[in-house]
Amino acid sequence: ENLQKLLNLFEAKDNVLITIDADPDAMASAMALKRLLWHRVQSVTIAHFNDIVRFDNVTMVRLLKIPLVKLQQIDAHAFSKTLLVDSQPHHHEAFCDFHYDAVIDHHPITMAVDAPFVDIRPSYGATATIMTEYLRSAKIRHSKSLATALLYAIRVDTHYYALHAYETDVEVFHYIIPLANMDLLRTIAIHETGIRHLK
C-alpha cells in the first residue's frame, strides 16, 4: 500500500531530486529510491549538503560508484519533485528551503512533517531496511552494488546489530546478504573500523 502511494506521486516527465545528509544509510536509501524510480521518471539526482570525509564513506562512494552532486550546486527549480530520505526537514537548515513531496526516514518524529507522502518508522533500525522492503514489494532484484550499499547501511546504523536492531532489520539482512558483494563490503568496513574480518 505504501509503495503504491509513493509511486503514484510520479509522472514520466518528472525530474526528481533526492536530498540527503550523506552517510551510509542515506546514500544507500537514495540509491534504492533511484532504482525504484528507474524508467518511471525522466531523471533522478541525488544531492548531499555535507562534505564526505570519513574514509568508509569515501570508499563506499568510490567502490559502489554512487552518483552524487553537492546540494549547493543544484538549481532546485529544475526539479518537479523533491524527496528526502534518512532525515526529516527540520533536522538541518539545508533542508528548510525545500518543499518535500516525500519523506522516508527511521529516526524518531520530533516535529510534524508536512508532505504528500510520509513514511517514518522509528521502530526500524535503518532507512535502508524500509527501502529494501519497497524494492522487494516492487519485485525489483538488487544489483550487487545496491545490495552491498543497503547491507552496509543496515550494519552501520544498527551498530553491527548490537544496538537499535529490530526483527525487521534482521529479516532484511538475511534476505539481502546473498545478493551483496562481500569482498566490497569488507573493504568498506576496513576503512571504518580497521578490522580485517567481518563476522
SS class = alpha/beta
Strand percentage lies at 5-15%
Shape call: globular
**Helix-strand string:** HEHEHEEEEHHHH
Largest sheet: 6 strands, parallel
Low-confidence stretches: 194-199
Q: Give the oligomeric state.
A: single chain
- How many runs of DSSP E, i.e. beta strands? 6
Q: Total helix count? A: 7
Q: What distance lies between the first and last C-alpha atoms, to the nearest angstrom?
A: 36 Å
Question: For the CA atoms, what is the radius of gyration?
Answer: 16 Å
| Rounded average pLDDT | 91
Share of residues in helices: 25-40%
Biggest sheet strand order reads: 3-2-1-4-5-6
Question: Any descriptors?
Answer:
single chain; 199 residues; alpha/beta; 6-stranded parallel beta sheet; 38% helix; globular
What does this structure look like?
- The protein has helices at residues 2-7, 24-36, 55-64, 127-137, 144-157, 167-176, 182-193, and strands at residues 15-20, 43-48, 69-70, 81-85, 102-105, 117-120.
- The longest helix is centred in the C-terminal third of the chain and has 14 residues, at 144-157.
- The protein is built from 7 helices and 6 strands, in the order αβαβαββββαααα.
- Helix 2 packs parallel to helix 4, helix 3 (55-64) runs antiparallel to helix 7 (182-193) and helix 5 packs parallel to helix 7.
